[in-house]
Request: fold
Amino acid sequence: MTKYTYTEKKDTRSGFGAGLLEAGKRNPKVVALCADLVGSLKMQDFINEFPERFVQVGIAEANMIGIAAGLTIGGHVPFTGTFANFSTGRVYDQIRQSVAYSDKNVKICASHAGLTLGEDGATHQILEDLGMMKMLPGMTVINPCDYNQTKAATLAIAEHHGPVYLRFGRPVVPIFTPADQVFEIGKAWMVSEGTDVTIIATGHLVWEAIQAGEQLEAMGISAEIINIHTIKPLDEEAILKSVAKTGCVVTAEEHNRLGGLGDSVAQVLIKNKPAPQEYVAVDDSFGESGTPEQLMEKYRLNAPAIVEAAQKVIQRRG
Amino acid sequence: MTRDIAELQRIASQVRRDVVRMVHGCQSGHPGGSLGCTDYLVALYFAIMKHDPSFNMDGEGEDLFFLSNGHISPVFYSVLSRSGYFDKAEMATFRKLNTRLQGHPTTHEGLPGVRIASGSLGQGLSVAIGAALSKKLNGDDRLVFTLHGDGELQEGQIWEAAMFAPHNKVDHLISCVDVNGQQIDGPTKVVLSLGDLNAKFTAFGWEVMEMKGNDMAAVVEGLHKAISLSGKGKPVMILMQTEMGAGVDFMMGSHKWHGVAPNDAQLEQALNQLEEALGDY
Reply:
């Protein structure tokens, strides 16, 4: 198995902040909006550099989405920033009508997604956002896995024309992808090749999948690990190619098992070549308060859960 | 600017014919509010705004208009067509399968003149503010106009936007509320009172003015006044008094014609009251 190590941990939201600053330098039409969460979204560097290209909307997310849609008229490329919950569920209809249906070039950038938001609890821990966003026609949905990938994704979406949902998080996690990577929207990343089981992971679960792959290797199981950072459009070819080889798949995501990456993968398999699949995801429940590590353990979103799912799916495949 | 009031009134008469004929043609749509706002839209597109019917989404160097109460699409489509954005024959496709003239306006089918989808209420003021900010960033000093229904003001997002625009001195924005006092379930006073709108918007920091919306001379004069009030650090709000169904006697004075289509006899009765000034589609 390909070895991955890290020397530094950082939060993915800081990757967004760095990417936004860089995107602003590259394109004078890039503008940013925030709903009273500048520090949490790591937008201060952009604001310091381009104060006239930043819009503080206050605690008014619906208005923020509408203003962002309007800013595209005249050629601007707006990046909105707030927590994932307030970026999606709270403003679903605004995104649906003023952004997606109107085909506006808005980048909806969402931090503190999932359980790893931690102590604030279920009101803030959205686990349904990927599902809501991927159901919108024309919406690109991206969930990067570490600081470097989030920065690269931020730069990539600035160049892409069309509405995008970019989801990242709060906790510091290992940086294991290269700083100089080219992020290709819709293209899966082959993390490690294997033959016995395919593990498809997104976001914070990619590092856990790598840990799981090492544990499985020690048990004599060869896992193929694929990072799907773009939930939509989905790299169907990469999924089918891998599952053709392994015959079974584990999907891993920090999301409700309903409507997330797992369901997208299942649909591809059903339509093409059905194969046993196990979900590592939240089992249709809300989250709760706790540290990120405690929550990921309690809700079984970690390396041991992936190992267990891999063993089970291999058994099912026979 | 060169058109006189009589000419604008004749255009408005044709637009009202288009409205009732479109709604009759598909037996669906919203004639009441469309008729009430006809004079405002005709004045904007034929006398006030600098705009280019060859249509470019970004609209740089042009005045922009955003329809927030998208259900009055018939009047919007008629005014766009009559001012050159698309052939008048296309009005016959209103609300029919494969049309660009969807029930509520959208950019999705590429209809020239439409810059944002509307229909789900309360979103257009925010979008207009965004477009106004975009103009400021581009050094473009043209104006952004909007139209909202009074019932629409019951949506919370309107007040988020109403708070934002004065705080940020979005002063090249001229918004207009169609105060017809009616909504689907009845008079606004019965359904959910809007209270003193002048006092409310004034308290939010807007420059507020009132205007009679079914008197073409008053509309043109009012819009010139609104323009003179713009650029002074505050957004401008026009509270426009209209009558739902204006121009067709039996459609006036009630919420009944908010979303009901006329039958054949009613269509004839309506058309008898409206001059065919520019030729029907």
Q: What stands out?
A: The interface with chain A takes residues 57-60, 64, 66, 106-108, 115-120, 122-135, 137-138, 140, 156-157, 160-161, 163-164, 168 of chain B (CB under 8 Å).
